[in-house]
Amino acid sequence: MLSTRQVEVPSEPGAPRGRAPRRSVLFFAFAFAVIADPVSSVAYAIEAALRALHGDLALLLPTMSLVIGLVVVVTANYWQLVRRFPKGGGAAAAAARAFGPRWTFLPIGALVVDFVLTIGISISAAASAVIALFPALAPFRVPLALLLLLVVAGLTWFGHGGRLLFAVMTVAFVVISVAVLVLGFTAPHAQGHAAAATAPGHSAMIAVVLAFPVAMALATGVEAPSTAIAQLGQLGDDERRGFGRGTLALLVVIVGGLTLALTTLAVRLHIGVPGTDSTQIADIANAAAGPGWLYSAFQLTSSLLLLAAASSSFQAGPGLLKALAGTSDRPGVLPPVLGRTNRHHTPYWSVVVYLAAAAVIIVAAAGQEQELVLFYAVAVFVSFLVGLLAMTRFARDEGSSVLAWVNALAALAVAFTLAVNLLRGWPVLSLVGTLLIAAGLYVRWTRAGRPSGIEDIEAQAEGAPAP
Length: 467
Fold this sequence. Notes:
single chain; mainly alpha
């Protein structure tokens, strides 16, 4: 996530002139850096849905519309979380307050797995974007992905410096995407040859219901604003709520708008499942703009955005392990070595842990992000489910029956999505990893004497001081 230490903003009443513009710059930097992950998911989520539909373009738009609908539902829950926990904490804080500190470890375990998968998928997708632009690199897919992984991990060594670039990369991708979309809808360069019709009926509905959970990778990163607001120490609670909710609203508008527009264009131009050395959004851009500078700019900005998303997890993941390792004043759950930092405050051994884990899954998937997407919307949905159940309990305890029913129905939708993905077989590994990490952390926490403050570990990982 973005380190807001790079943008100094006066917080006291009656601040000097220039306060409003600086606040605007801070919101821009915070919001667009935080949503880099979900925006980058557009690069592979649409294709994942189409593959699950076995290339049936006629069902792609209904499927992605259902995906966006569930993203809105999940976002609405985090809207409530931001209101209740303006100092950060996300699902971990909600679970602890609703069910007790031991439940904190389930969303924490989910986040650890999610960060590893985000790095692996983002790096693999970035390599695919580069290969689509330079097909001659196709035989070197895995080495290219590992090289990009090392570069991103290496840059992490220097801490949070330059994180404002994440926001710039996100904006650049959005701007170039809009240009591609405008050209594609008004004067496309070419059209594909995929079939855009299917036989209607009950089987089509079942296909959509079974396919949309795969594309729920689009929802990853939705939790980021609720934890990243912990970085905004120079702001009051009300302003943090405003930043968090503003970022969530921006996320829904940009991710939802880009996803539905690119999906509609894919159907309109008959862009089906891509070849081995390309991606669907690359084929969409090529058909819309032709193999010119705009196509090259689209591939470049998408690959940079994906690397930014990987870098964001390379910051947040090790930061979480560092917080779990404790400090000299507070006992930790993990070995102290994971909390050791360099002069840039980077927990380098924790970075090495994530580097090794991401390298393993990249090699195992042969650098193919579509192989990893199947595992993606599992761990993070465990966190979503816990957060929704916690908010349901809060609403019930406060006598808000309407809100309790809304949250309960949202929890059922998330549970269904999780169950369908688990029924695919191999994604069970993500759940197993989440449960093993959660159980291991709980055991270590118990052996350490159950140190207090564990419920605020996500906020501490983002830089907020321990309570």
